[in-house]
Specification:
The structure holds 2 protein chains of 2 kinds. Chain A is an alpha+beta fold. Chain A is built from 9 helices and 26 strands. In chain A, the strands form 6 sheets. In chain A, strands 1, 2, 3, 4, 5, 6, 7 and 8 form an 8-stranded mixed β-sheet that branches. A 5-stranded mixed β-barrel of chain A has the order 12-19-20-22-26. Chain A has a 4-stranded antiparallel β-sheet with strand order 15-14-13-18. In chain A, helix 1 runs parallel beside helix 2 and helix 3 packs parallel to helix 4. Chain A is globular and about 70 Å long. Chain B is an alpha+beta fold. Chain B has 2 domains: about 210 residues, PmbA/TldD fold; about 220 residues, no CATH class. Chain B contains 10 helices and 21 strands. In chain B, the strands form 4 sheets. In chain B, strands 7, 12, 13, 14, 15, 16, 17, 18 and 21 form a 9-stranded mixed β-sheet that branches. In chain B, strands 3-2-1-4-5-6 form a 6-stranded antiparallel β-sheet. In chain B, strands 10-9-8-11 form a 4-stranded antiparallel β-sheet, with no helix packed on it. In chain B, helix 4 packs parallel to helix 5. The longest helix of chain B is centred in the first third of the chain and has 17 residues. Chain B is globular, with a radius of gyration of 24 Å. The chains are: A alpha+beta, B alpha+beta. At the A-B interface, strand 1, strand 3, strand 4, helix 2 and strand 8 of A face strand 1, strand 2, strand 3, helix 2 and helix 4 of B.
Chain lengths: ~525, ~450
């Protein structure tokens, strides 16, 4: 599947509603977690499991939702439970228990997991092959946040959003929705390899959507925030000049000025109403990181997931054009020489950053496409033997204690260009082009060849200069063709993260949060269509 | 245990309401057992079963509301949950759009529950998977599929005397069959309330036939084509359109149903006069729960009649503002069709493209309901009433509003995604590029 920036009302809310104060309580302590885990590890072993892992998870969410001058909803949820995964008779088995606070409960879940594994073993064609993993003993990891968003009073959040909405209305918007999403995953992992890993993960996403209407023509236009969901605390909402990228409109790095962005958005929706409708044809595209993250996500992140390549997602998300035979040639040309794409589960501030993944593997960075050539995939412990490696890449994840962990996308990013190049210099070199900022409509086929993307803001470039705003723009391309048309990538000064809170995959579907970094990049001769219609 | 009887559910709800000190209180009690089995590469990959029983209490003081939930049902836990909901309500900001709770309502009986589904066990699921994998293995094809069954109940009650109870079962099954050379792919999906009506082998055989028939696809130029959309292809576009029929968005000027100069297009003819879309929770083929989440009764509603927009759905607040009936949004729709089978429709087509399924559908322009997406898992060229050859997949950019104006013919409706939809023959359907995906 894919991952966009969804606005209300399609927000997955999991867990039970709780009072906001409960989000600040500490939950089960580490010593108790170890006892609960050991009970499960021992019970599974006694029943014949050859491998066991236990995940004790407490998942906290707070969503504050507003429109214009009203608070629509404040959601506080907590979900706590234990999931036990085992290998018995060469087959995986999984069982989970909600609100588990006794050793008897986790032991029972472990026994159930073994029974399921043994039952399913009869339907297995070949036994699970698990890459070796050393135990780390008792270790911990905390996201390096400065201000825990759950400690910020609700009133401060409500005031921020209502202030943002008021600014939008004052600047000519007809409607505005704004939302603050905050997530804290308190995850404890233990395995029969000898790891006991305690982790504290934080994520935040401030987002708005502004609408302007021209009643006379009956037309309306929207502009969504240029924020990114981040693996950060409330400090992301601390505006800081060094985190601003100025230009035709201001974009943001690790500090987001929501008020400034909404004022720009309100004015830009008015401009969009009278903007020139694009003439379809070939254009050189200059894509801002606030837009390019989603193209990277769909055309690089997903096709290089090994489970898709192997066919495990064939009935839902699909398979992949980047088949093993192409990778084995060692010269499959994924993109131009400028294209270096890497996976990284350690990047600070990113949504995917953790110390260890959900099967106890220490996270790392690795190359996927090097100087344009496909060099690797994303794979986990029971897959890496297929690509000739004996160590997992550490990108296993479950969205809940009650979901079984599986291979999920790491942060996949485009490396900045090696030569000094600013966005302004890049624009100067373009004769006929479109500069796209922000993510919009997105669609890609089930093997990740053909895609179509829109954005939030489109600017026409004529002979090296921005000539004005455009609308009704979408571009269509083919993954390999597109990445081979990449001729320039700005240097690291422009490198920023975008990302998704709700990337969906699997049946039953699980969501995952993932970031994608890049600097602004140029793609030559891309097919642009006009999306205006009359009904 | 997860499926409580009406009497058991009412007893718990009444007990909760008796603890209330709030101005108003509502209770939702839900229980379900959901099982699933997933397979790929002709082998089962995961299967499981989860039971859930949860109670949610909403307390209201004036225009402030608070919700708390619990999954323990002793008196002390229930009372604690009521007190917590009341505490949260007192601290919550006022909701200026709050509408007082409904009083007692009359709900019709709907045929949503079947014992055949409630009885499903791991052995049933394994057999269903085997019936799908086995014919594929024998023909050197690769199956990937998923089946999920749910048995559950939903009960609602409030301090104004409202009470509702519904028991429901459902099974969803989907199967993708691919040829081992990766050049052919076929798909089929089924959803039923009554498991006795599900045959995973016959659904798989349809997907197998499509996989084998699609493996030598030729490229056609993108452009406007007459298409026959199977129900699995048109359903997402139709459901997206129905979800956009919210009256408030239309009144506010940000919907395809907004009128130039203000107001809505209610009563306007927007589609071909043969288009009739309604919802009916009592439908034997497509039953639904008799009440919405907030307690409003679900009744038969005509949404589009002879091409004219007859109803839009309203929140209770917006209905009060506009002084109209607060019609809730439906969960499933029924689009009336004709009597022809899909085979008849193909036979009556001179030139066209048969589309099994559309995929990765995303909105491009909410004003015109323009959507993009791709064909997938079996796309075929029809000439002189016969399927001539498979064609490569296309990307489309099309609006369901335009599509339902370009209607050529409709076949017999079938159940898909909790709705009933006929196969649709549409002229000038817009394909904008080719995809290499199989």
């Amino acid at each position: 599947m894919g991952a966009g920036a969804f606005m209300l009302p399609n927000i997955p809310v999991s867990g039970r509603p709780v009072a906001p104060e409960e989000l600040l309580t500490s939950g089960v302590d580490v010593a108790m977690k170890k006892r609960l885990a050991d009970a499960a590890l021992n019970a599974a072993k006694a029943k014949g499991a050859s491998y066991t892992d236990v995940r004790i998870g407490r998942y906290l969410n707070q969503y504050v939702m507003t429109r214009e001058d009203k608070v629509q909803n404040i959601v506080n949820t907590e979900s706590y439970g234990v999931g036990v995964r085992v290998i018995a008779d060469g087959c995986w088995g999984f069982a989970a228990v909600v609100d588990a606070k006794s050793e008897a409960q986790t032991a029972r879940a472990a026994e159930e997991a073994v029974a399921i594994a043994k039952a399913n073993a009869k339907l297995m064609k070949e036994p699970v092959q698990l890459a070796p993993q050393k135990g780390y003993g008792e270790v911990s990891w905390k996201a390096p946040i400065q201000r825990n968003a759950f400690e910020v009073p609700i009133q401060e959040k409500v005031d921020l959003l209502l202030g943002v909405n008021a600014a939008a209305m004052k600047n000519g918007a007809n409607f505005v929705n704004s939302v603050l999403f905050m997530v804290n995953e308190q995850k404890y992992f233990a395995s029969s390899d000898g790891s006991y890993i305690d982790q504290d993960v934080h994520r935040i996403w401030p987002v708005f959507n502004v609408t302007s209407i021209d009643q006379k023509s009956g037309k309306f236009e929207t502009r969504q925030s240029l924020s990114a969901p981040m693996g950060m605390g409330y400090e992301y909402l601390q505006s800081n000049p060094k985190d601003k990228v100025t230009g035709i409109t201001t974009r943001y790095n690790k500090g987001y000025d929501m008020l400034e962005d909404v004022i720009a958005a309100a004015q830009q929706t008015k401009q969009k109403l009278t903007a020139k409708s694009v003439e379809a044809g070939k254009y050189d595209l200059i894509l801002d990181p606030s837009h390019l993250w989603l193209t990277i996500h769909e055309s690089v992140g997903h096709p290089l997931e090994l489970d898709r390549v192997l066919g495990y997602e064939a009935n839902f998300a699909g398979t992949s054009f980047a088949t093993l035979d192409k990778w084995k040639t060692k010269d499959f040309n994924y993109g131009s020489k400028q294209v270096n794409l890497f996976a990284d589960k350690t990047q600070e501030g990113s949504l995917g950053a953790v110390g260890w993944d959900d099967e106890g593997v220490k996270t790392k960075r690795w190359d996927l496409v090097k100087d344009g050539t496909l060099v690797n995939y994303q794979a986990i412990r029971d897959q890496v033997h297929i690509i000739g490696e004996n160590e997992s890449q550490g990108c296993c994840y479950a969205d809940s204690w009650g979901s079984v962990q599986f291979q999920r996308m790491a942060n996949v990013s485009l490396a900045p260009g090696k030569d000094q190049l600013s966005v302004e210099e890049m624009i100067k070199g373009v004769e006929k082009g479109i500069y796209i900022i922000g993510d919009g409509s997105f669609s890609i086929d089930q093997q990740r060849y053909n895609f179509q993307f829109g954005g939030q803001l489109y600017y026409e470039i004529k002979e090296g200069k921005i000539a004005g705003m455009l609308k009704d723009v979408s571009y269509q391309s083919n993954t390999q063709e597109f990445w081979n048309s990449c001729v320039q990538v700005c240097d690291e000064r422009d490198y920023r993260l975008g990302g998704s809170f709700f990337d969906g995959k699997g049946q039953p579907m699980q969501v995952s949060a993932v970031s994608h970094g890049s600097s602004t990049a140029r793609f030559n001769g891309v097919n642009v269509i006009n999306t205006a219609r009359k009904i | 245990m997860a499926t409580l009887s009406k009497e058991e559910a009412k007893k718990i709800i009444d007990k909760v309401l008796a603890f209330s000190k709030a101005d108003e209180m509502s209770v939702n009690l839900n229980g379900s057992r959901t099982g699933n089995i997933r397979y790929a590469r002709n082998s089962v990959s995961t299967s499981g079963e989860t039971n859930n029983l949860s109670l949610s209490v909403t307390a209201v003081y004036g225009k402030r509301s608070g919700t708390a939930t619990i999954n323990e049902f002793d008196d002390a836990s229930l009372e604690k949950t009521v007190r917590r909901a009341e505490e949260i309500a007192r601290l919550a900001p006022e909701n200026p759009e709050y509408i007082p709770m409904l009083g007692p309502q009359k709900y019709i009986d709907t045929p949503t529950y079947f014992e055949s589904t409630a009885k499903i066990d791991p052995a049933f699921r394994a057999q269903a998977a085997f019936d799908s994998i086995d014919p594929c293995s024998k023909k050197n094809l690769t199956a990937a599929g998923y089946m999920e069954d749910t048995t559950g109940f939903s009960a609602i009650g409030n301090s104004k005397g409202l009470f509702g109870y519904n028991k429901a079962t459902s099974v969803d099954f989907s199967i993708t069959v691919r040829t081992n050379d990766g050049l052919g792919s076929g798909y089929a999906k089924r959803d039923v309330n009554d498991a006795a009506q599900l045959n995973t082998r016959s659904a798989t055989e349809v997907a197998m036939q499509k996989a084998l028939a699609s493996s030598t696809a030729r490229a056609l130029e993108p452009g406007k084509y007459t298409v026959i959309l199977e129900p699995a292809a048109s359903i997402d576009l139709l459901q997206n359109m129905m979800r956009s029929m919210d009256a408030r968005n239309a009144d506010e000027g940000r919907s395809f149903l907004s009128k130039r100069g203000g107001g809505t297009r209610l009563g306007e003819k927007l589609f071909d006069e043969r288009v009739n879309i309604y919802s009916d929770p009592t439908s034997v083929d497509n039953p639904d729960a008799p009440f919405a989440g907030d307690g409003r009764p679900q009744e038969k509603v005509m949404w589009v009649e002879n091409g004219v927009v007859k109803n839009m759905f309203y929140s209770r607040f917006w209905a009060q503002e506009k002084d109209v009936k607060a019609v809730p949004s439906p969960s499933g729709i029924i689009m009336a069709g004709g009597t022809e089978s899909l085979a008849d429709m193909i036979r009556n087509t001179e030139k066209g493209i048969l589309v099994t399924r559309l995929w990765y559908i995303r909105a491009v322009d909410p004003q015109t309901l323009l959507y993009t997406g791709l064909t997938r898992d079996g796309t075929f060229y029809i000439e002189n009433g016969k399927i001539k050859y498979p064609v490569k997949n296309f990307r489309f950019n099309e609006s369901p509003v335009i599509m339902l104006n370009n209607l050529e013919a409709m076949g017999k409706p079938i159940r898909v995604n909790g709705s009933m939809v006929p196969p649709l023959k549409i002229r000038d359907f817009t394909f904008t590029s080719l995809s290499d995906a199989v």
